[in-house]
Amino acid sequence: MKTNPFTLTFLGTGTSQGVPVIGCDCPVCRSDDPRDRRLRTAAMLDTGQSQIVIDVGPDFRQQMLRAGAANVRAVLLTHEHNDHIIGLDDLRPFNFLQWRNMPIYASERVCENVRHRFAYIFAAEKYPGAPLLELRAIDKDEPLLLEGLPIQPIEVMHGKLPVLGFRIGALTYLTDMKTIADEELEKVAGSRILVVNALHHNPHQTHLNLEEALAFVERVRPEQAYLLHCSHRMGLHAEVSAELPENVFLAYDGLQLKIE
Predict the structure, then answer these.
(1) In what order do the strands lie in the sheet with 42-46?
(2) Regarding the domain delimited by 6-251, which CATH topology (the fold level of the hierarchy) does it fall under?
(3) Residue 3 pLDDT exceeds 80
(4) Residue 152 dihedral angles phi and psi, to the nearest 5°
(5) Which of 56, 86, 146, 183 lies most in the core, judged by the most C-beta atoms within 10 Å?
(6) Which ranges of the chain would DSSP assign to H, the alpha helix?
(7) What are the boundaries of each domain within the chain?
(8) Residue 81: HSE in the Cβ half-sphere, 13 Å Cα cutoff
């Protein structure tokens, strides 16, 4: 799948608690290495003219200010967990800048969840200043074209919960994955850049751990792989990175990749 060049920015690479964790004094949470400070997982695709955001968690405002983003034109949601959607209200400034509704692309289930949890946004009579969001249901088997980028949804399983990842040209972006069906794995084949979650070293019911993530990388065989959605229990960035295969990297907040 070919596409125009774009930049992927890791807006956040941490778990639902973020890193450092409140009240924790482990070596990772006390680290002064900026790569060990992880906001909640989210990403941004930048074409040079506009941006698309993947997930809008509780750190969204901070992430947008840090990235200097001013022209977000669409949002892709992977699933409805709090650390991926609760920042939707902070899309309001883009409504004011663009004088348009913000399209939100997600599965039908996630759209219904958002409509219920953010009922004030979709009320018949809105209070002044409420966000202007337009929910657009997407299907795992129907590609999209957003801001000139062809996007193929990919369904993975977050335990028993279906979650969407996305294939954009040479890039596959997967988060909160535990398993993937063979037919969905076919959509990942040929990816040069793979982004996938790796929670920590121990087994987990709904996330890949580091061993499982590395096995998945070996199965896909991309040129480069980046691990995200990492807990403080993963360990220090510098120490873990030194033990990874040469083509596998721990992603960190603010990291940018040029995708061609």
Answers:
(1) 133-137, 102-106, 72-76, 51-54, 42-46, 6-12, 256-259
(2) Metallo-beta-lactamase; Chain A (3.60.15)
(3) no
(4) -105, 110
(5) 56
(6) 60-67, 82-85, 92-98, 108-117, 182-188, 210-220, 237-241
(7) 6-251
(8) 17
